[in-house]
Every structure is written in structure tokens, then in C-alpha cells.
Amino acid sequence: MVVGLVGSGNMATALARGWGEPVLCTDVVAERAQALAAATGGEAVASNAELAQRADLVMLCHKPYQLDEVAQQIGGNAKAIASILAGVTISRLESAYPGTPVMRLMPNTAVEVRRGVICYAPGNQMGEPLAAALLELLGRSGRVLAVEEPLIDVAMALISVAPAYIALIAEAWVDAVVARGMPADQASAMVAEAIAGSAELLSANDVDTLRTRRAVTTPGGVTAQGLDALERAGIRAAFRDAVDAVVDHVP
Ligand SMILES: NC(=O)c1ccc[n+]([C@@H]2O[C@H](COP(=O)([O-])OP(=O)(O)OC[C@H]3O[C@@H](n4cnc5c(N)ncnc54)[C@H](OP(=O)(O)O)[C@@H]3O)[C@@H](O)[C@H]2O)c1
What we know:
The protein has helices spanning 10-19, 30-40, 48-54, 67-74, 90-96, 128-139, 152-160, 162-179, 184-204, 209-215, 222-232, 235-247, and strands at residues 3-6, 24-26, 43-44, 57-60, 81-83, 102-106, 116-122, 142-146. It is α/β, with parallel strands linked by helices. It has an 8-stranded mixed β-sheet with strand order 3-2-1-4-5-6-7-8, sandwiched between helices. Helix 7 crosses helix 12 and helix 8 packs across helix 9 (184-204). The longest helix has 21 residues, at 184-204. The chain starts with a strand and ends with a helix. The mean pLDDT is 96. Bound molecules: NADP nicotinamide-adenine-dinucleotide phosphate. NADP nicotinamide-adenine-dinucleotide phosphate is lined by residues 6-12, 26-29, 32, 48, 61-64, 66, 69-70, 73, 84-86, 106-109, 160.
């Protein structure tokens, strides 16, 4: 399947790197499209109309507010559309691209290292063979999960933001142990492995968070003290506020 990416920014680059396949791509800034084409062995194309003519599927990787402008540039040439645009519903996509099969996606940048999470909701006109080919491609860059369309915005508050949240948590954690005397390079080497290994352990425990916590929490011990400090600092309220901030401000 030849995929054409409209927009060669952060998310398009992460997706294409994860697939490891040549892509066709465009960007307002030609150098960005050329860099992405060079990274994938693909081709930077001169216009969105040409991209759509040559691709089996056009993936919208521009900003959400650019939907109608890009649809005009594509001018009815797309055979199928996949969109990663935050907050742009299937019905908005179908009215911007009438008669064209569409699929709505929500990825995160961890697709670049093939450990992404990608949620999807297909439109009614998306046929089985095309959907299967697209899901196979997406599956190369991570875990692919079907969700009801109204939950895609909520999924965004969990998966798309995750690399940024984990980076912030890692930074705060490193700063705290540096303050207690650990060299920063040692702390940095430990934090990513501690997070990755703990995520792996949680998966191995069927995401049973309580079982995983209890296995390392001796009553009255140091982990219990640390967890208590996080609860007192309002970690649950902070995550509730962060989810609300994303879902309530979807463009
Ligand atoms: N970044 C994430 O983690 C993430 C996660 C999930 C979903 N998304 C979605 O992914 C989309 C892209 O996000 P991003 O972070 O990758 O943004 P980005 O880095 O700004 O990339 C978007 C690119 O599209 C270009 N563009 C604008 N109009 C275009 C046109 N008519 N034809 C071709 N290219 C055009 C932009 O150029 P200009 O800058 O010159 O306009 C920019 O280079 C957004 O809709 C966002 O909601 C992002």
C-alpha cells in the first residue's frame, strides 16, 4: 500500500520511521518533506493533489484547523483518508472528503520506536480489505486498538500525551535523586529503565495495578512511605485535572 502523508512534522516523521517503509509526503516547508522522504527512502511530492493521485491512502498529518484547506488542495483525488487530526470527527472528515472512505486514528510518538499505541475508529465507507491493510501497517509500529469514536478524544488524554507526561515524571524524579546526591548521568540511566521495566512488569501482571504495588510495598516500609507522599501531594487529582484539561480543550 502506498501511503501519502500530508504534513511532514513530528507525528508524520514518527509514524513513517516506525513503519520503515518508503512514503510519499508533502509539507508547506519543502525541506521538511525532503528530510522525511530521505529518512524513509520515499519521495517528497510537489503538491497535495499529486500526492493523492499517487497514493493508495492519504494520511492527514497537518494541524486540525487546516482540514478544509487541505481537502481543497487534494481536490477529490484521494482514494482513502486516514486522519490523526485531534478533535476532527469522522463526520467532519466525511463532509470534507465526500464519498471517500475515512478512518480516524489517534497515535503517540512512541510509534517511532515501534512501541506506540494507536486507537482507531473506521467510517462506514471504509471497506474490509483497505481497513485490514491499514491496520497491518499501523501494527508494525505498536499496539492497535479499536475504540468507539466518542472515546478517541479521551484516548488522546492517555496515549498521545504519554511521552510528554513520562518525560516530565522522569525529569522530576531525576531532579529529586540528584538533590539527594546521585550524579545526574547515573540517575538518567536508571530512570528510563526503571519506567520501562515497571511497565513490562505491569503488563505481565495483566495491568493489575494493586497486585503490582502490593508486591513491592511492605506495610509501614519505605515504598509505603513514598506512595503516601505521592498521594498527599495529590497525584490522583493531578491526573484527573490533566485528563480534563486535554478532553475539555480538544480543538
Ligand atoms: N504530536 C503528537 O504527539 C500528536 C499525537 C496525536 C495526534 N497528533 C496530530 O497530528 C497532527 C500533526 O501534529 P504534529 O505535532 O506532527 O504537527 P507539526 O509538527 O506542526 O506538523 C504538521 C506539519 O504539516 C504542515 N502543513 C500545514 N499545512 C499543510 C499543507 N496544506 N500541506 C502539507 N503540509 C502542511 C505544517 O507546516 P506549517 O508548520 O508550516 O503549518 C507542519 O510541518 C495534528 O493534527 C495533531 O492533532 C499529534
